[in-house]
Specification:
By secondary structure, the protein is mainly alpha-helical. The chain has one domain. The chain has eleven helices and no strands. It is elongated and about 90 Å long. The N and C termini lie far apart (61 Å). The model has no long low-confidence stretch (mean pLDDT 81).
């Protein structure tokens, strides 16, 4: 996660609340997008900054929690990757007077090549699992991300209709819009039938808001917060499950590589003794 001046958002909230200007370029990109949208539409900036500060702190807390949840799995992963290259030489030193002689034979070279290929594939698989476990949660597919919902709330607060607000939010969303334009079209056509795939929760919330006469902006922000909570839970589960995901590359690739690197010098030493 990119680092920004810790007090930048708090200072911006204070300055905006006092009617003073602040440096948008010093804000995190997400906060800067929200402020730019609010400024362009004439929406109040202070509530936007307050929401941005909460979201930014949530992202920092999530990154820390994911890092802690994946810490044990990363330690195991390092051990799994380092073990095979160490076990072979150590075993050869323990069981034979010529520890590298086995790797100069035709069979030894074949074993070394095969073990090296298994180790390389296993290392890549393990590193990929570690990288995915530590990756920040993000919405994939057609579902709305929390930022798009927050941006839509900003545009609605400025007086735009929901369809127009969704289009403005989709245009600013760095994740690609996630179907916001499709939902806007669905609304413009009278919201006939089911909403586009992945947006069912928005359809249900809109129906309830209209039935109860609720303002849309707070409803959208609440839905964004719920989306963040689900993303956080998914990220923590992914990080906590790292150890289990290491089982496959370990059993199919790294363990066979280690066994080959250990068995070759042991057998070579035994044959030398018998010969």
């Amino acid at each position: 996660m990119t680092s920004y001046e810790p007090g930048a958002l708090a200072l911006a909230v204070a300055r905006a609340g006092s009617g003073l200007s602040f440096a948008v370029e010093e804000l995190p990109p997400r906060a800067a997008r929200s402020v730019a949208l609010a400024s362009s539409l004439g929406a109040p900036v202070v509530p936007v900054l307050e929401v941005a500060a909460v979201v930014h702190q949530h992202a920092r807390d999530l990154a820390w929690a994911v890092d802690r949840a994946a810490a044990e799995g990363r330690t195991v992963a390092r051990a799994l990757v380092v073990a095979p290259p160490l076990l072979g030489p150590v075993t050869a030193l323990l069981v034979t007077d010529a520890p590298f002689a086995v790797w100069t034979t035709a069979v030894g070279r074949i074993v070394l090549l095969l073990a090296g290929a298994l180790w390389l594939l296993g290392s890549l698989a393990v590193r990929g699992s570690v990288r995915r476990a530590g990756r920040p949660a993000a919405t994939r597919g057609p579902e709305p991300c929390d930022e798009q919902l927050d941006l839509t709330a900003v545009a609605v607060t400025a007086g735009l209709g929901l369809a127009a607000a969704l289009r403005r939010a989709a245009a600013l969303d760095p994740h690609g819009g996630h179907g916001g334009a499709s939902v806007a079209t669905w609304l413009e056509l009278g919201a006939l039938g089911a909403p586009p795939p992945g947006w069912e929760s928005l359809g249900s919330v809109l129906a309830a808001a209209r039935r109860d006469g609720l303002p849309l902006a707070p409803v959208l922000r609440a839905l964004a917060a719920d989306t963040r909570d689900r993303m956080q839970q998914a990220a923590l589960e992914r990080a906590a499950g790292l150890g289990a995901r290491l089982t496959l590359p370990t059993s199919l690739l790294l363990l066979p590589a280690a066994l080959l690197l250990v068995a070759a010098p042991v057998l070579h030493g035994a044959l030398d003794l018998l010969g």
